[in-house]
Specification:
With 123 residues, this protein is of the alpha+beta class. It has 3 helices and 8 strands; from the N terminus they run βαβαβαβββββ.
Length: 123
């Protein structure tokens, strides 16, 4: 099982459960849902969600995603992570592809660390 992660608010995830599909704002604006690998997630969270306490990590089985997953570079030419390839989901995410949802809360300084619950996905 190849796991990719998506950071979202608990409220947005809970809203998706009733429809069976999750849609992020980026899907409508950019055409895809931003995701990260295990190794990219903390940097992404610290960069785009500093201090947010309402977040969860969606642990997505890439093979079960109903929409195409592509690995691509960051959108900004000025992003220092230009050599990295990030997983992007090109369409709504079927909730059946989410194998675990984990609370994602920063430390007192507002910085993130991977939750211990994700240890099972690290190889």
């Amino acid at each position: 099982m190849k796991i990719i992660l998506h950071i979202t608010s608990r409220e947005d995830w809970e809203a998706a459960l009733s429809s069976g599909f999750y849609r992020s704002a980026s899907l409508d604006a950019e055409g895809f849902i931003h995701c990260s690998t295990l190794g990219q997630t903390v940097d992404t969270a610290d960069r785009f969600f500093p201090g947010r306490r309402d977040l969860v990590l969606l642990c997505i089985d890439e093979d079960r995603a109903g929409s195409e997953v592509r690995y691509e570079g960051p959108a900004s030419d000025h992003d220092p992570r230009m050599e990295s390839r990030f997983p992007h989901i090109y369409g709504p995410l079927n909730v059946s592809a989410v194998v675990r949802v984990v609370a994602f809360v920063p430390d007192a300084g507002g910085h993130f660390a991977l939750p211990a619950e994700l240890g099972a996905f690290q190889a």
